[in-house]
Amino acid sequence: MQSGKQATGVFASLGAIVSSMASLSCCLPLGFAAALGAGAASAFFNALRPWLLGLSIILIGLGFWQQRRARLCAVRGRLIGNVLLWAAVAVVLAMILFPQQIAAFFADRFYEPTR
Fold it and tell me: 24, 94 in Cβ contact below 8 A?
């Protein structure tokens, strides 16, 4: 496990990515999970979408703050922390700017209609 000084934004970055992906779940056609209540889950996540994206932005800010604090304390951040933080920025921006296009991309790749 990482010590507090070495965990410079990794968990905040992962949390931002997970919460932004959860905000996308309202747009995906989950035909294979319809029997499991995907319609209700979609409506639930659709109502939470602005909150999840806000949480993503807050977690990204926390990640940048942790990296800045680590630099001030002369702790060298890890490359994986930097990469994950910038990947989180890219994912969250894509979710905010292009939610329908991303949902369509995933739907085309993972949804197979029954014949």
Answer: no
